[in-house]
Amino acid sequence: MSVRALPKQKEEGFIPVFEKVFKLKENNTTVRTELIAGLTTFMTMAYIIALNPNLLTGFGAEGQNLWNGVFMATCIASALGMFCMAFLANKPFAMAPGMGLNSFFAVVVGNVAAMTGMSYVASFQASLVIILVEGIVFLVLSLFNVREKIVEAIPLGIRLGISPAIGLMLMNIGLGSNVGIYAEGNGYTTPFYVMRDFFGSLTPGVLKNNMGDAGYAVMVLTVVTMFVGLFAIIGMSRKGVKGSVLYGMLIASVIYWAGEAVFLKENPFASLTGASFVPPFADMAETTLFKFNFAGFAEIGWFTAVTLVITFCIIDMFDTIGTLVGTASRAGMVDAEGNMPNMKEALLSDAIGTLAGACTGTSTVTTFVESASGVEAGGRTGLTALTTGVLFLACMFIAPIAAVIPAAATSSALIYVGILMLMGLKKINFDKIDQVVPVGLMLIGMPISGSIGHAIGIGLVSYTVMKVFSGKAKEVSILTYAISLLFLVKFFLAV
Q1: pLDDT tens sequence across 131-151
Q2: pLDDT the model gives residue 338
Q3: Bridge partner residues of 241 (DSSP)
Q4: Which residue in 28, 88, 172, 388 has the most C-beta neighbors within 10 A?
Q5: Nearest-10 crossing angle of helices 302-330, 156-175
């Protein structure tokens, strides 16, 4: 007697939809893994939501309305960029207003105000035109595959060195700027850093004397938290625990909150008392949303305006290229030549993100290096980027909750991911001096300068110079010569 096969029940829910859209099985991942990866990425870069408006408005000195407008723009533009990355490129990379670029933008706004006599808000709106032009330029370059050709023009050795250089940069962020501790009550207005000051101090007594009791206590708690979180991540990863990076950050967060309550006698959730969860849409509409001051932009002068557009373009382009190539290389998303599939779509998403930033009211939106944390957590598709984007939108309503995640906890993840990215050094041919020199300069240049793009520029220039002076000028492509020349102009001649 034959047994008739029962018809398969139709799958319900979002999982089949996610599979169809993001090709999860093809990329050897699952919905759960992608969601955890997205949450992990969000936690490591959530700081930008408050830090970006702080930097662009002098920590609120230019009025609460402008701060609120930039805050909303940061959430919305980042989310739109990530949605494009998810559905156009199907890549796990997150986007937000780039660090370094936002500080540069703030300097430009201040200079425009001083040069023209306009108010800060009017100068801000005039400077948004620069970001708009940059976004349009990038959109055109991406549509015509010019940016993709630029990626291909980067020599293989340099491309292989980008990932470990980013790793050192992540470690520097985790042990440095991410956990800078101010001790203003003891007369210090500059921050103390873990690696430089805690481990670099002659004795604990000297550091305690410099920082004061309160500052030193925070420093100790920070050090304990980040290293407990780091070794928790390592331990769980070695045991094959999925989402170990996220769980490690959660463990670190609990330790820090407990330390605040027990040893510092502070309420870690005090900021939630009386916090507003209503998004300030009205302030955004008043100050930043499509608030392009074209008349003010004209007052800058065409030469200065063109120079600024080119400067933003160069920095953004190579920051994005470096992050995409470096992170994709670590995740095994590149071919034998170091090229990433769907690079055009990824770069197009970056351009759309920058345009969204200009229209909503923030500086250049670019691919974030912290995406590496989500990739390390297993993120392989656009579902990771979609998850992070949704969380950014949610932050318009839950920003006070996101703000209680301690920097020490995110540092654990950044240090761990940075260490793993150093493994990419084994791909470098250390017997070839024309690989070692550019990579060596990038390894030191990226964490110290804080710019992925500038470090790649140093690597390209050094590579080109060595080839020329060793009689191998013909091995360098015309496009590589052009890019190297642009960086030399940027470094020495741009005003």
Answers
A1: 999 999 999 988 888 888 887
A2: 65
A3: none
A4: 388
A5: 90
Would you place residue 316 in the very low, low, confident or very high pLDDT band (cuts 50, 70, 90)? confident
The model's pTM is: 0.76
CA distance 483 to 266: 52
Q: Which of 324, 346, 355 is nearest to 453 (CA)?
A: 324
Structure-model confidence comparison of residues 85 and 193, the more confident one: 85
Residue 198 burial class via C-beta count within 10 angstroms: exposed 0-12, middle 13-18, buried 19 and up: buried
| Residue that the structure tokens 């805050």 belong to | 71
Are 421 and 170 within 8 A, CB to CB?
yes
Predicted confidence (pLDDT) per residue in 42-89, tens digit:
988 887 888 788 889 876 778 889 999 999 999 999 999 999 999 999
Q: What local confidence, expressed as pLDDT, does residue 92 receive?
A: 94
Nearest to 356 by CA among 49, 36, 97: 97
